[in-house]
Aromatic ring-hydroxylating dioxygenase subunit alpha (Paenibacillus oleatilyticus), 355 residues
Amino acid sequence: MTLQKSTVSHTGALPTLPYYLYTDPRILELEKEKIFSKAWNYVGHTSQVAKPGDYFTCEAAGEPIIVVRDQDGTLRAFYNVCPHRATKLEKEAAGHKKILQCSYHGWTFQLNGQLHKAPNFKESDDFCSGAHCLKSVRVETQASLIFVNLDENAAPLAETYADFFEDIGQFGFLGKLKKHEVKQRIIKCNWKAFIDNFLECDHCPIAHPGFVATLDMSKYNIINGPYCNIQGSSVKQSRSDYDDAEVKEGRFYWIWPNVMYTVYPGPGNLSAIQMFPVDHETTLGVYTVFLEGDEPTEKQKELLAFTDQVRKEDVEIVELEQIGFKSRAFSQGICSPTEHGVHHFAQLVREALDL
Ligand code: FES
Ligand SMILES: [Fe+2]
């Protein structure tokens, strides 16, 4: 997808979502059921489960999940829950194992999810014959990114975010990246406020001085795709400090409902930004940075400091916005023509919630 031409979906002022959707705890319950438990949930990068026996644990739609590369090399995902009496099976964030063992009564499972041994059922020889397996979850991979979906009937991953995968596929370094760092931040806003913020750059000249000093904002463009949004621009001509092997643009992606990816100018890099609702007015932001190589170079360190600064600037404004959502002054806002990404997201939320 080219970002050369401005795409604006409307010319007048269109309404935002009504503000009660950002302040009512009942709406979050509805969103869990109608949005998060039906969507593809990004959970990690293929480098995190490169070899048979590698695993990591995560959450998808509030469910504990384990993603594992089994002995045959097949990537699998399961609810991280023991079939015996529900104990969370693996406690560690990541590791390497030949067999998975529950810490309560010691049931063991093969990496393909089959029950291996159930010590407290020694007398029943046929107990391990296939029943009582781990419960599997759909897992699919595109562009070295791993996703799970709790909905058996969801459309395939590649089809759901076709435009996103086509565009991000231009960065040949994705498969070479390794997880470098994870930062978490509690943000005092509804999760949708952070997404709204990401989907427009009207705020960039005001909130992000370093960002607009680096990218050519006269060419900045924002394009809506089905279930995704792609935006970015090249670095300013005056910035000659990027060599040919480096990325010379900023590219920013959002995919429905709560995940964003950023590629910043500089050495090959990708950040995944996940916004997990904690409650209706609190969000856990998880920022995972992937880089090439093992030890960050000076240039990579500079890039990390730059992205961190931009993120901080966004957190400040969305927390101020949440204060206003609760005010009786207004019950709804308006989207400018260049806030068409915000309006697109609002439409998807309305459709998902049947509003
Ligand atoms: S709950 Fe897992 S072995 Fe009993
Ligand atoms: Fe921003």
Summary: The chain is about 25% helix and 30% strand.
